[in-house]
Write a structure and sequence with these properties.
InterPro entries: Glyco_trans_2-like (IPR001173), Glycosyltransferase_2 (IPR050256), Nucleotide-diphossugar_trans (IPR029044). This is Glycosyltransferase family 2 protein. One of its GO terms (biological process) is lipopolysaccharide biosynthetic process. A seven-stranded mixed β-sheet has the order 3-2-1-4-6-5-7, with helices on both faces. The chain folds into two domains: 227 residues, Spore Coat Polysaccharide Biosynthesis Protein SpsA, Chain A; 78 residues. It has ten helices and seven strands.
């Protein structure tokens, strides 16, 4: 397949007016040195400074620079989604606009996608220039993501990544899911995921736009993406299993209480009423919850089946006369 460009560079940004001219010049210099055909897509996520005016000036000077501006701040995932939707390069590079990601890494990342046939390559900022308040939570976040996803990456949230175009045109990034693009890619069948040590530059302009709350939201998003990825097409496997187990536990406790009462009545003629025991009400709650979970799984299965679309299944390639 022929692509208009070798590389599309997608840069989400928010209030980065000072760094944009230097970043674009740096990217251009690298592209010209290695003779790549390219486009630079700058996605302004509702900046309140002069970022959009700077993008317009850069685009007027060179038509390889393209800009998209949001009406308000939607978040990095939305910016990446829009950039992925508009890009046309064979290899797609994402990087942050704050000059902490080095464009000098682009040729090596391109080679890993183009010639080593990786689906996705994630940067690893092995040596970081961030405070401990940021690096320690990042290490914990990455360890949890490795454990739950099975993907052995050191830095899931590194903004510097490279993709085959098919990957970015297939995956959906929304909410705060940009942290888990490798996980989303894996669940969509793109399993050749690599890693490259990249340089981490000290921030030259402005301040970071992210706070510690992103780690709390990030963990919740991880649970969400793991659940949806595994059970989106088979919700009954989750809800039905949990419901059946709870129902059987509740039923088992109830039967045991009844048998215990009958045994005591037979032995000495006296026994405590089943309904006088707190354990009976716990068993009753377990039975009710079990039935509700099973019904939830049943309804979710019906919704999943009714909403299935023919084009939700990714075809890798075709040969011969097989029609799309």
């Amino acid at each position: 397949m022929q692509y208009p460009y070798d590389i599309s560079v997608v840069v989400p940004l928010y209030n980065e007016e000072e760094s944009l001219p230097e970043l674009v010049r740096w990217i251009k210099r690298v592209m010209h040195t290695h003779e790549f055909s390219y486009e630079i897509i700058l996605v302004d996520d509702g900046s309140t400074d002069r970022s959009w005016e700077v993008i317009e000036e850069l685009s007027a000077e060179d038509n390889t620079v393209k800009g998209i501006s949001f009406n308000r701040n939607y978040g990095k995932s939305a910016a990446l989604h829009m950039g992925f939707e508009r890009c046309a390069g064979e290899v797609v590079i994402t990087m942050d606009a704050d000059l902490q990601d080095s464009p000098e890494e682009i040729p090596a990342l391109y080679d890993m996608i183009k010639h080593q046939k990786y689906d996705l390559v994630s940067g690893w900022k092995q040596k970081r220039f961030d405070p401990l308040s940021k690096t320690i939570p990042t290490k914990l976040f990455n360890a949890a993501t490795r454990k739950l996803s099975g993907i052995q990456l050191h830095d899931f949230n590194c903004g510097l990544k490279a993709y085959r175009q098919l990957v970015v045109k297939t995956i959906e990034v929304h909410g705060e899911m940009h942290r888990y693009i490798p996980v989303i890619a894996k669940w969509n069948g793109f399993t050749k995921i690599g890693e490259k040590v990249v340089k981490h530059q000290e921030r030259k302009y402005g301040t970071t736009k992210f706070g510690l709350e992103r780690f709390v939201y990030g963990f919740l998003d991880l649970l969400s993406i793991t659940f949806v990825s595994r059970f989106k097409k088979r919700p009954m496997h989750f809800f039905g299993t949990m419901g059946t187990l709870m129902f059987l536990v509740g039923l088992g406790i109830t039967v045991w209480l009844i048998v215990q009462k009958l045994f005591k009545l037979y032995a000495d003629g006296r026994a405590r009423d089943v309904v006088d025991q707190p354990l009976f009400f716990l068993a009753l709650v377990a039975v009710i919850l079990g039935v509700q979970l099973f019904l939830a799984g049943f309804l979710a299965e019906m919704v999943s089946m009714s909403s299935n679309k023919k084009n939700e299944y990714l075809v890798r390639d075709r040969v011969g006369s097989v029609k799309a």
